[in-house]
Amino acid sequence: MWQQLHGVMGLWLLLALGLALLSGVLRSARFKGWLGERLVRRWLAQGLDPQHYHALHDLTLRLPDGSTTQIDHVVVSVHGVFVLETKHLQGWIFGAERQQEWTQTFYRHRVRFQNPLRQNWRHLKALETLLDVPLAHLHSVVVLTGTAQFKTAMPPQVVQGAAVVPYVLSFNAQLLAPEAVQRILQQLDAQRLAPTRATHRAHVAHLRQRHARAEGASPASTRVLATVPATPTPPAPAPAAAPRPPRPLADAVEAAIPGRTEPVLHPEPVPTTPQAAAPCPRCAAPLVARSVSRDDGAWLHFWRCQRFPECRHMQPRTVEALPLEE
Taking Cα atoms as reference points, which of 193, 74, 73, 66 lies closest to residue 133? Predict the structure, then answer.
């Protein structure tokens, strides 16, 4: 009887250990990332016509400087190259398009993580260099596959779940010729590294090295540098900058806001609701009305592409002042 009891207790112990291991795997970030990417693969396969939309998954590309970049999904079509970053998140999400970090909240527990739009921006710049494609032909998309809910205004490039399919289909302007689509697919197939565990480990090691370098010098090295007497040396003359084409509107916007490279939103001086007459001439995205105030108190009104900073098209606009109520 004791042997039977010990056998039953052993089975229960093995079952408890198995459930604990399974729970740990299901809660791991690696499994959540794998699950999110699999869901996006299924949605793209079911919702996009493979004759017109060519989906590639888990691309690890080597950059000219020897480093690597890993992209979850790339969809190539005549409407552009869609670069998808997948995030499997739960809880409440607080974040804006320009913020460096977003916040994920579980009840009273808060976690800050890198803005995935900024992360995907590096992917777009890498593809711009490797494929020799204009940045206006690359579309950044962040897909949330978990049960997370945005508690702030969700950026337009962020979609949830299967909504990624109608978002991709909403781009109707033809940006690439069919020959260019085939060329891009051949380049990606030729330049991608084999999707093996060795490739993944090497990419993770590179990311850790890059983050370690970004943290700066260690305190010990800082102390050693502090003990070396400073010898004044005349600064080397800076090389002459190459002249750039005139940008009257962009220069006026930057002059109105010194030290910034993007417009700051200000309230309109009059209650107007302007509408763009035509989409962006570069990427066919909608134009949004923006205004900035200059030092002299005057207002500068202009149209800006909704995909800023991916597309930096700006054009002036006129505002008809309405009579103020007495």
Answer: 74
